[in-house]
Amino acid sequence: MEQIIRVESIQNKILIIRGQKVLLDKDLADLYGVPTKQLNQSVKRNQQRFPQDFMFQLTSAEFGLLRSQFVTSKVRGGLRTLPYVFTEQGVAMLSSVLHSRRAIIVNIAIMRAFVQLREFLSTHKDLAKKFQELERKYESHDMKIKAVFDAIRQLMSPPKKKKYKVGF
Hints:
By secondary structure, this protein is of the alpha+beta class. Helix 2 (about 25-30) packs across helix 3 and helix 5 (about 90-95) packs antiparallel against helix 6 (about 100-155). The longest helix has about 55 residues, at about 100-155. The chain has a domain at about 5-125: Roll (Mlu1-box Binding Protein, DNA-binding Domain), CATH 3.10.260. The protein contains six helices and four strands; from the N terminus they run H-E-E-H-H-E-H-E-H-H. Strands 1-2-4-3 form a four-stranded antiparallel sheet.
């Protein structure tokens, strides 16, 4: 009966906020199969396990930007408090707070998603570095080729005739 959680679906929920890869409390609650309020209450009961680098609350500006990215409307009866976001370490700590078989399965899937994302980003960095090296290499080639073409153009142009002055 356990539903298989696809790593790709988790990766699509990972956001970058304040330079950190995070998951929204609402998305985590959906994955764990619990109401967002219950997830946040469990976290609040164990506040000492979640320092600022594990979990933080969004500012209204961050939330407004996030809402505009997902084109959600302001609906009556919506959020009363700003959402919390959890870093990779915060998600790992959630496993010690939420005690269910589903929580274990979801946590493993989330950790795998973070690892795959990290590997993907490091591969992109390597590719970007190699591309920059190629650009630099061919940029110097371009300058040398341009110099060769300039020299050929000079050789192809007819020599300038010397003008002799009339008189002494």
